[in-house]
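Subject: Predicted fold for 3-dehydroquinate synthase, 352 residues

User T.R. writes:
Posting the sequence so we have a shared reference for the thread.
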Amino acid sequence: MESVIFSNNISFDLSKYLNQLGYSQLGVISDSNTSKFCYPIIEKLLPEGHKHFSFPAGEANKNLNTCSQIWQWMTDEGFDRKALIINLGGGVTGDMGGFCAATYKRGIRFINIPTTLLSQVDASVGGKLGIDFNGFKNHIGVFTQPELVLISEIFLQTLPLEEMRSGYAEVLKHGLIQNANYFSCLKIADWEKQNWREIIEKSVQIKREVVEKDPKEAGLRKILNFGHTIGHAFESFYLNTDKHLLHGEAIAVGMVCEAFLSHKKSGLPKEDLQIITDALTEIYGFFQFFEADIDDIIKLCSQDKKNEGSTVNFSLLRRIGNCDYNIKGTAEEIKEAISFYQSLTSQVQLNQ
Ligand SMILES: NC(=O)c1ccc[n+]([C@@H]2O[C@H](COP(=O)([O-])OP(=O)(O)OC[C@H]3O[C@@H](n4cnc5c(N)ncnc54)[C@H](O)[C@@H]3O)[C@@H](O)[C@H]2O)c1
Ligand SMILES: O=C(O)C(=O)C[C@@H](O)[C@H](O)[C@H](O)COP(=O)(O)O
Ligand SMILES: [Zn+2]
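User M.O. replies:
I've generated the structure tokens; pasting them so everyone works from the same file.
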């Protein structure tokens, strides 16, 4: 598996590991925001002559068109197989930059410097790389591990609060699927003043322990996908609309729906369902959508990568801290889960 370094001194560590890894050419990929906020932090540490590619920020650009531009840039710069790529950014940069590196000339090495909470706790680790395709999340991709993941909280200083909250959904997921004690200790009193280091380390540890046992998602790794079957469907459906959801926000909706399915199908106690819905709705509120969208959202679940044939496979909780996978679900059950989510909104309105 990849090495993960929690860095207290990004200048020192980056220089050290770049020297250790060695390369013929060095390229940095970042998006428009990380080019502005994060590239200046590392630029001065990089050798003169390194190359930099910047693409417009956002999930809407995690696609083949941007990949094509990245591959063209690599080609124009004459990158050979000993070139090294640094993905400097959130999950979009890591997933897409990694995918481009892993496929360019059948694969060149890359390192991840994650700059969002979400990518520090989840996306930068584990080697799932890819892009969205024709409205389907991460539909095209590969499993390839980065050479190194270098995590520094210094980058979080410029990250908007809503992005911190989005990343926190994956933290809650890690507790829910693997560690009830961790989940129960998670409480952010002050988002601005929170010391994130322990949380990042714990989440990375949980994710790595799972990935180590099942790097290519033959079985166990599917638990990392809790909340994602329905969550991804919401994320995809509302991408490019004025209702678009951040990844973590969509996964929060998905986790409420799939916690309901866990109660219905996997024995998750009612009290646990209540704890989960309370925790998630307190942070993420209630996403409002139209009844008329539901059938299309359900259809999107049929393209989930955990599925076998026409059967939708869920990862569901038996209790907080314990997740099962390959639980078959029907369109009717997905509808019921989404209705449960909607019913929470109306309960709140009634209580107001
Ligand atoms: N490969 C995996 O295992 C994995 C895991 C989880 C999520 N993902 C993917 O990751 C993506 C979501 O990741 P994300 O939330 O990091 O999204 P992102 O990469 O789009 O980053 C979120 C926003 O924050 C900005 N940003 C990043 N770092 C910043 C900084 N330090 N200061 C200011 N702005 C900054 C970005 O420009 C962007 O606008 C999704 O595509 C999701 O599918 C992948
Ligand atoms: O690492 C994994 O495995 C995950 O499922 C982590 C998820 O948080 C992440 O969003 C991942 O990209 C989803 O993968 P997908 O296979 O459902 O596209
Ligand atoms: Zn995710």
